[in-house]
Amino acid sequence: VIFSPILQDQFDNLEKHTQWGIEYLEKYTKFVKERSEIELNYAKQIRNLSKKYQPKKNSREEEESKYTFCRAFLATLNELNDYAGQHEVIAENLVSQIITELVRYTQDLKAERKSHFHDGRKAQQHIESSWKQLESCKKKFERDCKEADRANQYFEKLDADINVTKADVEKARQQAQMRQQMAADSKNDYSSYLQKFNQEQNEHYFTNIPAIFQKLQDMEEKRIEKLGVCMKTFAEVDRQVLPIVGKCLDGMTKAAESIEPKTDSKQVVESYKSGFEPPGDVEFEDYGQAMKRTASETSLSNSKDGKEKSGSKSKGKLWPFIKNKNKINVLIVVPCEGPPALSASSLPSPSAVPNDSQSPKQHKEPLSNRLNDFMASKPKMHCLRSLRRGGSGPEDFSHLPPEQRRKKLQGKLDDINKDIQKEMDQRDALTKMKDVYIKNPQMGDPASVDPRLSEIGQNIEKLQFEAQKFEGWLAEVEERMPSKSDTHRRSVLYEAQNSTTVGNNCAQDRESPDGSYTEEQNSETQVKAIVNPTSTTPDFDDEFDDEESLPTIGTCKALYPFEGHNEGTIAMAEGELLYVIEEDKGDGWTRVRRNQDEEGYVPTSYVEVFLETNAKGA
């Protein structure tokens, strides 16, 4: 739009156009706002979708984490969550960089437009008022001229009439002169005001109105320019997040490429490997010799009574968990809390294990004895169907196949050993604190630590008892498994002569994994050697002699003076700055260093510690 004096009569049209421009700006602001809301809703839905398919905190989560495709899907969900975050960033930038700016600019634009049109209306009113005054002067001049002309004609009429007195003629002459004077004055007023009006009109049309039009033109151009800048920002907001969005997509691609089908299939085999030995060949039974039936050497039932108990006319089962018409899924014998005692006769002899699949003549029913011993040693389970419904199995996992049971017992044993080590670390820390209190009574009462030490000792005894129990079950499973490749396991837990004692107390007279027999009331040192033979308990003084120089993880300032008379401590003055090389581990002491050769412990409450950022994360 080009404004010029030619458009002076288009003042109303300009007012309508600028109003439409402001409305268009508000329309674009509304568009960006709706786009921002769409981005927020989309990000919210993406986050909800990612959260919905996140694995639940249960045992199934641990099972799923074994497979590469499950881990890849979890990584995809995490990347998708980050992807949603970028759409939230888009919405925030649209609001902060465009919407907020346009709302403020629209308000300023309305105020500026109102000011310009107010000035235009004021100038228009002023020129109209001047025009009205000019018209008034003109009419007055015209009226006075007519009055002077009538007065002059009346005077001439009386002057020509001989019957009129001289006084009347003089009066008419004076009246005509007065009217002429008034007409002359009106003429002068009209002339001066006309000159003034022409000057104002010239200024109005060539100065004031063009200036106002120029301001409106500048305002309109700024509005259009601002709209263009916002449209460019609208595109830049999306472009700014493209690198991070690309990284999210790259993460999804990398997660998909990390899937290893062979590894997952091997994991399935490893997870569901039962450990059962395949049954041997079924031998021919000759019924033509005598009425006495010969029992099959490879049958699961090794006696006539066993067949009667099975409740079926069919042959014995060749697999412990094969379903037949009888649907025998219930295993018998409920053991005590500890592992059952194994007699010498119940253990399979080396000769009972078939060495050659081609030799039918074996010792009497080796497979039947082995499987019967296995099933007789299992604790009673309610039903396999109950496990599918989510029922909890026995404590010794006897409802599982041998290989799965061994894995479960090993995992449980590892957890117990970790708990024992944690309790022992706490006991060592409290023991150090008690020694410090004994040497420095002013720092605390040594007796205050005894209740906690006693409680930790009881916890350690309970955990050690649990460890012994699970070690026994684990050794029993490995003894009964066909494969004996794990040479570091021990085969026998209980001796035959101790079977009665084990029936009364399942936790006593047990052989530990390292081959030594232990009692239930062993000392903490002996039991600790059983649970974790490689772990040792360092003395308080050995920490300073054996450990290498530790790196600095921060600084500290001494709040109070400390003498440091005891061995392992270091003296410090109030306000002294020292280097921190080891944080307080719960015993109330912090390890510091003054120089490369002088270091020791100081009370944590005596110093103010300033750790480095990376040290806190570590």
From TrEMBL:
Keywords: Cell membrane, Coiled coil, Cytoplasm, Cytoskeleton, Endocytosis, Lipid-binding, Membrane, SH3 domain. Residues 293-317, 342-366, 388-407, 495-525 are annotated as: Disordered. Residues 342-354 have a biased composition (Low complexity). Residues 1-264 form the F-BAR domain. GO terms for cellular component: cell cortex; cytoskeleton; plasma membrane. Residues 551-612 form the SH3 domain. Its main location: membrane. Residues 496-507 have a biased composition (Polar residues). Pfam families: FCH (PF00611), HR1_TOCA (PF25610), SH3_1 (PF00018). Residues 399-476 form the REM-1 domain. The keyword Transcription regulation does not apply. InterPro entries: AH/BAR_dom_sf, F_BAR_dom, FCH_dom, HR1_rho-bd, HR1_TOCA, SH3-like_dom_sf, SH3_domain. Signal peptide: none annotated. It is found in: Cell membrane; Cytoplasm, Cell cortex; Cytoplasm, Cytoskeleton. GO terms for molecular function: lipid binding. The keyword Coiled coil applies. Gene3D superfamilies: 6.10.140.470, Arfaptin homology (AH) domain/BAR domain (1.20.1270.60), SH3 Domains (2.30.30.40). One of its GO terms (biological process) is signal transduction. Belongs to the FNBP1 family. This is Formin binding protein 1. It comes from Tetraodon nigroviridis (Spotted green pufferfish).
